[in-house]
């Protein structure tokens, strides 16, 4: 008989700024949520990188990671992700080598190739005038070397960094990122919470092409999705309107803070906008514990994911923390993988 195991669950936080609250409060919310996730037994707590976005306070990602590491004891903390075109590999290696040295065994380095912003801001962030996204594979290999053993170093070294072996994860929302993660023998985290279109094909490609590495003899898939869990299905539907307004921001190109829930979205969006929001947020699991558990069980079993990473755009901080409680219980009690 095949032994079953429980699906690992983790948190992705974009550090949203709530309407009527300050950026300082967003940082406090982040810290509280990380401590709560640790108490609940979540695997890891990742922070994103976004720029020129007043509604998301996660631009200085490594600094926020340091704050969360200082406020917690055991949970793994990392980037979801560091957008490598915005940084030189040496600087990233020094920053994460420092974090790993201060908090051994608890630091993750998730890497993406998108700028995490609009193109005008991307140009302001760029380290050169060249398009650096095309250097992503080479930059990852350079970064691996900086974090690797002393005997593999060149003349320029990362101090701290050498020998820290910070675990790397490839982030993506397309099949090209899946091909790269498979070739490098690294874990793969797919951003299905906002770019769901290629999820299934990307996972299939990653698993079929995976080349075992010393640290990862088997492929490892993390799927990032939206979760809004509550005591009742009706409450979850209402709380989810904050996420719907958040994604409507994306569709419209507006920069409103995270808004309180509303009784209905009718009249707040056009039919075309509603369709775009629902397409973008297709992988949203909302409802009570039983509903969320059953939906995630089917999802995880069908796609053979190893870990679920949840984003929860719930306006009320206590209800957001409760959503993560319900999710953890639902997965522990319902989801069993072969």
UniProtKB/TrEMBL annotation:
Its EC number is 1.-.-.-. It is an enzyme of class 1 (oxidoreductase). Keywords: Oxidoreductase. One of its GO terms (molecular function) is oxidoreductase activity. Transmembrane segments: none annotated. Residues 12-283 form the Luciferase-like domain. To bacterial alkanal monooxygenase alpha and beta chains. This is LLM class flavin-dependent oxidoreductase. The lineage of its organism: Bacteria, Bacillati, Bacillota, Bacilli, Bacillales.
């Amino acid at each position: 008989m095949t032994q079953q195991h429980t699906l690992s669950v983790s948190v992705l936080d974009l550090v949203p700024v709530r309407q009527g609250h300050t950026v300082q409060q967003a940082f406090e919310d982040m810290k509280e949520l990380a401590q709560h996730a640790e108490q609940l037994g979540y695997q890891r707590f990742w922070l994103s990188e976004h720029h020129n976005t007043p509604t998301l306070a996660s631009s200085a990602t490594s600094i926020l990671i340091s704050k969360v590491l200082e406020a917690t004891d055991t949970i793994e903390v990392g980037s979801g992700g560091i957008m490598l075109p915005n940084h030189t590999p040496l600087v990233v290696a020094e920053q994460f080598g420092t974090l790993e040295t201060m908090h051994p065994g608890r630091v993750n380095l998730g890497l993406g190739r998108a700028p995490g912003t609009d193109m005008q801001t991307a140009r302001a962030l760029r380290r050169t005038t060249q398009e650096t996204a095309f250097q992503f594979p080479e930059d990852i290999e350079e970064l691996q070397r900086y974090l690797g053993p002393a005997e593999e170093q060149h003349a320029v070294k990362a101090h701290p960094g050498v020998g820290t072996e910070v675990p790397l994860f490839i982030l993506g929302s397309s099949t090209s990122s899946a091909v790269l993660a498979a070739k490098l023998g690294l874990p793969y985290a797919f951003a299905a919470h906002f770019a769901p279109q290629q999820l299934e094909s990307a996972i299939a490609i990653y698993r079929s092409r995976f080349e075992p590495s010393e640290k990862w003899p088997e492929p490892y898939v993390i799927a990032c999705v939206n979760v809004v869990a509550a005591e009742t299905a009706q409450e979850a539907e209402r709380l989810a309107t904050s996420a719907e307004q958040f994604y409507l921001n994306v569709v419209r190109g507006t920069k409103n803070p995270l808004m309180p829930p509303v009784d209905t979205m009718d009249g707040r969006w056009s039919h075309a906008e509603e369709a775009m929001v629902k397409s973008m947020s297709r992988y949203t699991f909302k409802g009570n514990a039983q509903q969320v558990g059953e939906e995630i069980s089917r999802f995880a079993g069908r796609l053979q994911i190893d870990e679920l990473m949840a984003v929860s755009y719930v306006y009320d901080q206590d209800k957001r923390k409760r959503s993560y409680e319900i999710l953890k219980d639902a997965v522990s009690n319902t989801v069993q993988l072969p």
